[in-house]
Specification:
- By secondary structure, this protein is an all-alpha fold.
Amino acid sequence: MYENDLVPVNAQANSVETILQAAKKLPVDQRAELVETLLGEESGVVVLSANSHLVDYVIAQMNLLSSEGLAYVLKAIASRIAADGHCSKV
Protein backbone atom coordinates (compact mmCIF):
# COMPACT_ATOMS: atom_id res chain seq x y z
CA MET A 1 0.00 0.00 0.00
CA TYR A 2 1.00 3.59 -0.46
CA GLU A 3 1.95 5.60 2.59
CA ASN A 4 -0.69 8.27 1.84
CA ASP A 5 -3.46 5.67 1.97
CA LEU A 6 -2.52 4.43 5.44
CA VAL A 7 -4.07 5.80 8.59
CA PRO A 8 -1.80 5.39 11.61
CA VAL A 9 -3.46 3.28 14.32
CA ASN A 10 -2.19 5.43 17.18
CA ALA A 11 -3.30 8.70 15.55
CA GLN A 12 -6.40 10.53 16.69
CA ALA A 13 -9.45 9.01 15.03
CA ASN A 14 -10.56 10.99 11.96
CA SER A 15 -8.23 13.92 12.52
CA VAL A 16 -8.80 16.95 10.33
CA GLU A 17 -5.58 16.25 8.42
CA THR A 18 -6.77 12.75 7.50
CA ILE A 19 -10.06 14.15 6.23
CA LEU A 20 -8.29 16.89 4.26
CA GLN A 21 -6.03 14.33 2.60
CA ALA A 22 -9.06 12.26 1.60
CA ALA A 23 -10.85 15.36 0.29
CA LYS A 24 -7.87 16.26 -1.92
CA LYS A 25 -8.44 13.03 -3.84
CA LEU A 26 -12.01 14.03 -4.78
CA PRO A 27 -12.84 15.60 -8.15
CA VAL A 28 -13.40 19.37 -8.11
CA ASP A 29 -17.20 19.14 -8.36
CA GLN A 30 -17.38 16.74 -5.41
CA ARG A 31 -15.10 19.00 -3.35
CA ALA A 32 -17.40 21.94 -4.10
CA GLU A 33 -20.40 19.86 -3.03
CA LEU A 34 -18.59 18.88 0.19
CA VAL A 35 -17.84 22.53 1.00
CA GLU A 36 -21.43 23.57 0.32
CA THR A 37 -22.68 20.73 2.52
CA LEU A 38 -20.34 21.67 5.36
CA LEU A 39 -21.27 25.34 5.16
CA GLY A 40 -24.97 24.70 4.89
CA GLU A 41 -27.49 26.41 2.65
CA GLU A 42 -28.04 29.30 5.05
CA SER A 43 -24.41 30.48 4.99
CA GLY A 44 -24.91 32.70 1.94
CA VAL A 45 -21.62 31.45 0.49
CA VAL A 46 -21.61 30.40 -3.15
CA VAL A 47 -18.94 27.91 -4.25
CA LEU A 48 -17.71 28.59 -7.77
CA SER A 49 -15.52 26.35 -9.90
CA ALA A 50 -12.75 27.49 -12.20
CA ASN A 51 -14.06 25.37 -15.06
CA SER A 52 -16.95 27.45 -16.38
CA HIS A 53 -17.08 31.13 -15.55
CA LEU A 54 -20.36 31.79 -17.35
CA VAL A 55 -22.22 28.97 -15.60
CA ASP A 56 -20.76 30.00 -12.25
CA TYR A 57 -21.78 33.62 -12.88
CA VAL A 58 -25.34 32.62 -13.73
CA ILE A 59 -25.57 30.41 -10.63
CA ALA A 60 -24.20 33.20 -8.44
CA GLN A 61 -26.72 35.68 -9.85
CA MET A 62 -29.59 33.22 -9.35
CA ASN A 63 -28.57 32.74 -5.71
CA LEU A 64 -29.10 36.47 -5.17
CA LEU A 65 -32.75 36.30 -6.25
CA SER A 66 -35.67 35.89 -3.90
CA SER A 67 -37.85 32.81 -4.31
CA GLU A 68 -40.36 34.88 -6.25
CA GLY A 69 -37.67 36.38 -8.47
CA LEU A 70 -36.18 32.98 -9.18
CA ALA A 71 -39.62 31.59 -10.04
CA TYR A 72 -40.18 34.49 -12.45
CA VAL A 73 -36.83 33.93 -14.19
CA LEU A 74 -37.31 30.17 -14.47
CA LYS A 75 -40.84 30.59 -15.86
CA ALA A 76 -39.48 33.04 -18.44
CA ILE A 77 -36.76 30.56 -19.41
CA ALA A 78 -39.32 27.73 -19.67
CA SER A 79 -41.57 29.90 -21.85
CA ARG A 80 -38.65 30.75 -24.13
CA ILE A 81 -37.63 27.09 -24.44
CA ALA A 82 -41.22 26.09 -25.21
CA ALA A 83 -41.51 28.84 -27.83
CA ASP A 84 -38.19 27.90 -29.43
CA GLY A 85 -39.20 24.24 -29.44
CA HIS A 86 -42.50 25.07 -31.13
CA CYS A 87 -40.79 27.19 -33.79
CA SER A 88 -38.19 24.54 -34.56
CA LYS A 89 -40.91 21.93 -35.28
CA VAL A 90 -42.59 24.12 -37.91
